[in-house]
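Batch job 17 of 40 flagged for manual review because the log was empty.
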Amino acid sequence: MTRRTALAVVVAFGALTATAMPSLALGSGGRYYPESGHTLASEFVDYYDSRGGLEILGYPITDAFIDPQSAMLIQYTQAARLELVPDLYGAGAVARLSSLGEALDLGEPQSPASGDRGCRYFAESGHNVCHAFLAYFEAHGGPAVFGYPISEFTLQGDQIVQYFQGFRLDWRPDAPGGGRVQVGSLGRLHFDRQGYDPALLRPHLPSDPIFYRVVELNAQASVWRPVTLTDDTQELYVLVRDQTANPIVGASVVLIAHFPGLDQTVIMPLTDADGLSRLTLAYDGVPPGSSVELEFVVNYGDLRATTRDSFRVWW
């Protein structure tokens, strides 16, 4: 790949106003995110906030750990890798962002300046940033946060993307809330390519339960037998877990069984210590060959999830 060498290192410039953080600060100065089950290390909290926080860097996907190759303290987020490096101008250490776009060799040969008035050309790297990407790039810190562009916008699979020294921007026209430009998940891609222990990605509970909250329900339904008789019973199961796969105790489950010509609503038992609710459903007179569609509505606090399954009545 041909590209102008010695691209400027831009991670040390400027700062953004920190976005509101839907998380809880720990006594050690770290910050636990129940959404991902990881703690942002205290060494990175201020820097994370100054570089756009959750909107730009995403949730932490590991806890901080020592990189066996560089011996640096590092931590991965959805979009980035944070590193703690010696301060060349004084004692101690400072946080910085790794240039993941360059590290993953995702750049392209230089391009000429575009004649489109909606584009801006960066001679430092020889690439344009245009239209919605340009508006997002400039509104969220420009080169000081993302680095310089190292590709033009391009179609990757079925999605338009553009790579920068440190990040990837994705065009998502169907994103809710009008956020059509979003930061891509280069953090996980780089983590996988480095060959680190996958166990580092496993979510965990905080040391103090007061800092944990359930923010997402994941429900999965199943039936004991896929095929039954016209007059029979069926064993139904609903497993409910939270965003980090911990069982939810005490979730309510409402079953709506769609029999031919009739809907039956049943309140199932609350989920147990394993996050499981089970029910024996009795019925009779269902015509052979019918399909019984099952809808389960799960509620826990102000959270709701829906899951479905079905079985057939064969004879």
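Reviewer: the log was empty due to a logging misconfiguration, but the result itself is present. The mean pLDDT is 87. Unflagging and moving on to job 18.
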